[in-house]
Design brief:
DEATH-like_dom_sf, about 180 residues, single chain, 11 helices, Caspase recruitment domain-containing protein 19, mitochondrion, CARD19, mainly alpha, CARD, Death Domain, Fas
Length: about 180
């Protein structure tokens, strides 16, 4: 959906009573004039900031003017609105349509949360189990002669592996050469 169509859709919402006050409209006009002078020239900015005209009229004229100018101008209006009135920007009807989830689309934020909800302790526990199983499988493989080296590694690892687990592994390693 183009920004011009979105602006047309949001026009009633923006011009309705007490949505935008004069200060916010003046800030938007000044931003469009000073930051993007190609969007609003000085004469146009003065016309849309004229305090003699009603706020509703000035805002309606500004929105119609931007729609005539094209999609880029409407996009910059939305950017200025977001900067100067973020809550109103988030409440726009066109934003609510854009936020409506497509049932066939994957919600990446929700998917990311579902993947990361276990935390680092769960990851470390899974990694420890996998490393332990890999070490156990490697030590039990009859083709490798690493019992002595594994025994030395396990002997020097009271900090990494609990004392009881280490003793069980050492007993198992001692039983392998007997079989």
């Amino acid at each position: 959906q183009s920004y011009c169509h979105r602006l047309q859709h949001d026009m009633y919402f923006l011009t309705s009573t007490s949505r935008l006050n004069e200060q916010v409209v003046d800030k938007i006009v000044l931003q469009l004039n000073r930051v993007y002078p190609q969007i609003l020239a000085n004469e146009e900015a003065e016309k849309f900031r004229n305090p003699k005209a009603s706020l509703h009229t000035r805002l309606s004229d500004l929105l119609k003017h931007l729609q005539k100018k094209g999609d880029r101008h409407c996009q910059e209006f939305y950017r200025a609105l977001q900067i100067n009135a973020e809550q109103l920007f988030n409440d726009l009807p066109s934003r609510k349509i854009l936020k409506t989830p497509d049932p066939t689309e994957i919600d990446t934020d929700k998917e990311q949360y579902m993947l990361n909800d276990r935390g680092p302790v769960f990851f470390l526990a899974c990694f420890s189990v996998a490393a332990g199983l890999a070490l156990f499988w490697y030590c039990c493989n009859s083709e490798t002669q690493v019992v002595g080296r594994a025994r030395r590694i396990l002997g020097f690892s009271p900090i990494i592996i609990g004392r009881h687990v280490r003793n069980i592994c050492l007993l198992y390693l001692e039983d392998i050469p007997r079989n």
